[in-house]
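Q: Okay, next protein. This is Isocitrate lyase from Aurantiacibacter spongiae. I've checked the sequence twice, so it should be correct. Can you predict the 3D structure?
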Amino acid sequence: MTYFEEIHRQSAIRQKAGEGWSDIDPEFAARLRVQNRFATGLDIARHTARIMRADMAAYDADPAAYTQSLGCWHGFIGQQKMISIKKHFGTTRGRYLYLSGWMVAALRSEFGPLPDQSMHEKTSVPALIAELYTFLRQADARELGMLFRYLDAAREAGDEAAAARAQQAIDSHETHVVPIIADIDAGFGNAEATYLLARKMIEAGACALQIENQVSDEKQCGHQDGKVTVPHEDFLQKIRACRYAFLELGVPDGVIVARTDSLGAGLTKQIAYSREPGDLGDRYNSFLDCEEIAPGQIGNGQVLISRGGKLLEPKRLPSNLYRFRPGTGEDRVVLDCITSLQNGADLLWIETEKPHVEQIAGMVERIRAEVPGAKLVYNNSPSFNWTLNFRQQVYDAWAAEGRDMSDYDRERLMSEHYDASELGREADERIRTFQADAAKRAGIFHHLITLPTYHTAALSTDNLAKRYFGEDGMLGYVRQVQREEIRQGIACVKHQNMAGSDIGDDHKEAFAGEAALKAGGAHNTMNQFAA
């Protein structure tokens, strides 16, 4: 529906209501409707799910059409990210938001900073989804509000061409509301708990839920030690719980991202239930680190399993956890991924210990042999030392080619000494093209950085504090922040406008007419900044 079609619709509503609505302006009512195209979080979830499904199909047709996101821990951060994307690239297409459980734990828990171990309040996750979409919807309202002001000014000046341009811009406005891939950790409990939390997250607007195969009460960050996985059937119950939540709420296109931590997980809490040799439980148990024992060697409290006519004792730790055989990580990852895709998951997440295209591609090729078209979401993690990893990858590749490496010390490649070297430049180029290379070679549909805005907030605050509290004083803020905001066209330089003061003024004028006490008059210091 176009802007003027909405005005006509609102005019009909007012006319039907009669004289009591004579002071209601149909055009302002239309503006409110246009500024708020998503009435509920479920409207957002349905809209963004369709976007993700279309993007997945586009990637299947052309791996160059991969998608990206950055993790955001506050609505304002997500809003500014999408405003920046629209400013620099003209469209939000292919750019999402990521909601990191790590950042929720570290930054949004009432307990204060917590490690990524599912100890934070699970309600804080849907609360952050709702907050992110509140800020994105406000970005829509702000941008459209400025277009409405431009339209009014063009009408007042009698400039029909400018008014037509404004109307076209209003009708073709692209929303800042984009898909969020939201981290539900290991489900925060059993399958019922997962279902209940998934519902809350979807109701808040999430169209994509990322769930991992770790034990809920032993969950660890994917880049920490001590990870404990669960048998496949336990994990599949939670995938089904998420799907039922999507279906119940009328979001059939909802996306489930099944994450496996098996590459770095050497422990399991359970021996899987098996009905017959070769079934899924038996295949899971086949990875256990076991020793064959004779019946006469059975001691007190031992746990035994039988396989192929042999009696085996899984190696059990004092923590009651069982160990997997060393070197089985990739095989377990492949089985996890195939099983998840065959049981309702849409995308995969393989948590790796380093960003290596060929390592990821090797696993994906094995998965695609069973499930063609398998696609990944990949964590371009800040836990990786990208500089050192890629410099060492280049070093090893060149050494294998027989090149003279005497100018390089492999263990000290992080040194600034190598920044301008041929090796350093080649490593940087591989980092630059990593996402495109991995999308083409390793089936990665979506690249994300989990914690970038955690790090940028720390870095920018450190730089400001160093300058402002040091010799630069106020110049430390003006030169490094405000001056750059003005010169780079950062909308937040007009912070009153960004916080909604102009939107509020427009509302006041509609509500009170000439009696409105507006904030945006001639004496507003925000007017010092150019439009």
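A: Here is a summary of the prediction. The two ends are 30 Å apart (CA to CA). The chain has a mean pLDDT of 93.
Q: Noted. On to the next one.
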